[in-house]
Amino acid sequence: MKVYNIAVLPGDGIGPEVTSEAVKVLRKLSEIDVSFQFETEEFNWNSEYYLRHGSMMPEDGLEQLRDFDAILFGAIGDSRVPDPVTIWELILPIRKNFQQYVNFRPIKLLNGLESPLKKDAPIDFAIIRENSEGEYTNSGGAMFQGEDREMAVQNTVMTRQGVKQITEFAYDYAREHGLSKVTNATKSNAVIHTMNFWDRVVEEIAEENKDIGYEKYYIDALAAYFVQRPESFEVVLASNLFGDILSDLGSAIVGGLGIAPSGNINPSGEFPSMFEAVHGSAPDIAGKGVANPMAQIWSAALMLEHLGRKDLHDTVLAAMEEVLAEKKVLTPDIGGASSTEEVGDAIIGKLKNNGVIE
Ligand code: NAD
Ligand code: IPM
Ligand code: MN
Predict the structure, then answer these.
(1) What are the residue ranges spanned by the domains of the chain?
(2) Whose Cα sits closest to atom 17 in ligand 1?
């Protein structure tokens, strides 16, 4: 029997609420299909941990995670700890050190959900976001705090290897999925050094992949096109910050942050990949039991696909779509009145019958 070892980091706020539903789904799948099991180990590295220990994870935290098959991450963020601390001491070290240079974020309107755009055309594309460098660096500094001459400098760092590898991933993804074009999100008209370099390297790779189309838009116009004609996109390639912003916008046109999943992928397999909803810890609804667990359950499904079980991914998606189409058990963010747990249970209830497990 195949055993998958999964590190579970529930995090803060709604992170633990939605992650426990995702783990429930994984357990149920391994009951239905007895050919595999999950061994999960929970790491409560969150803001509470920081308040007790003065750091977001132990010194050897990355070492502890390194040999897992994958990581399932909830969300972090808590008003008692500054956001840059939670982010720079936990999420970003994992993404950067484990060379999870791809942030894969599907933007797909599931059956049973309506887009606020009221469009008939299907919305189904992927944001492929550079996830290890770019605008998210600690290069820079600040001086003269509190004085009139106070200043701050934040450097964007783009490397040839970094831009090349994410662009190649986007083209490989397009080809493997029978897609016809890659859309480059840029701002090389104003951000002249890094974004011109980004465009140049992206276009070198585009030249080598002429069987797949290429287009480039400035990100401001592209944001408008996401609303006006989202059906025209297949693969959107973006830098770290641009991809971050586009993914919340993308989620909003297909049902919101309660639905949107993501995978932080290390394509070489040298380190574990990490799966987490696009959303954060949602302090405004945390503790109320109303967070939509679908984004995290879908993220767990992406993890299954990454582990080689696309059949299980499809099973989970089919169950989610059944629950959405019935419109009986939904959380408030998508128009229902049910709880996080009720939605998790409803999805589990649908897992058995759809018969797509290999
Ligand atoms: P957020 O994504 O937490 O919340 C934005 C809005 O979406 C809120 O109104 C929230 O209630 C709603 N929402 C989010 N997830 C939902 C769900 N599953 N069901 C229903 N509604 C949902 O973004 P924010 O408010 O900007 O950030 C809150 C905290 O989370 C901050 O500390 C931020 O730094 C952190 N954050 C963490 C991650 C992460 O851990 N990966 C991601 C984004 C933000
Ligand atoms: C996300 C989040 C993170 C990001 C933060 C928490 C660093 O917003 O996963 O989208 O910007 O990547
Ligand atoms: Mn984000």
Answers:
(1) 1-103+261-358, 114-253
(2) 258
Going by CA atoms, what residue is nearest to atom 6 of ligand 2? 87
Domain 114-253 has CATH 3.40.718.10: yes
Q: What is the C-alpha to C-alpha distance for residues 305 and 33, in angstroms, rounded to an integer?
A: 15
Q: Do domains 1-103+261-358 and 114-253 have the same CATH topology?
A: yes
Residue nearest to atom 5 of ligand 2 (CA): 87
The ligand 2 site (C-beta within 6 Å) comprises: 87, 91, 244, 278
Ligand 1 centroid vs 55 CA: distance in angstroms? 22
pLDDT (tens, 9 = 90+) of the chain, 358 residues, equals 899 999 999 999 999 999 999 999 999 999 998 888 999 999 999 999 999 999 999 999 999 999 999 999 999 999 999 999 999 999 999 999 999 999 999 999 999 999 999 888 899 999 999 999 999 999 999 999 999 999 999 999 999 999 999 999 999 999 999 999 999 999 999 999 999 999 999 999 999 999 999 999 999 999 999 999 999 999 999 999 999 999 999 999 999 999 999 999 999 999 999 999 999 999 999 999 999 999 999 999 999 999 999 999 999 999 999 999 999 999 999 999 999 999 999 999 999 755 555 5
pTM of full prediction above 0.70 = yes
Whose alpha carbon is nearest atom 23 of ligand 1?
A: 280
Cβ neighbours for 186, distance < 8 A, ≥ 6 positions apart: 195, 198, 199, 202, 216, 217, 218, 219
Reading the block at residue 243, the tokens are 């991809």
Q: Residue 281 CA: which ligand is closest?
A: 1
The atom number, within ligand 1, closest to the CA of 14 reads: 18
CA atoms of 327 and 226, how far apart (whole Å): 26
245 CA to middle of ligand 3, Å? 6
What is the distance in A from the centroid of ligand 3 to the CA of 33?
34
Residue of 57, 113, 247, 257 with the most ligand 1 atoms within 8 Å of its CB, for mutation: 257
Q: How many CB atoms lie within 10 A of CB 287?
A: 10
What stretches of the chain adopt beta strand conformation (E)?
A: 2-11, 36-42, 70-75, 102-108, 124-130, 140-143, 151-154, 181-186, 213-218, 235-238, 261-265, 273-277
The residue whose CA has the least distance to atom 27 of ligand 1 is 280
Instruction: Pick one of 3.40.50.300, 3.30.390.30, 3.40.718.10, 3.40.630.30 as the CATH number of 1-103+261-358.
Output: 3.40.718.10
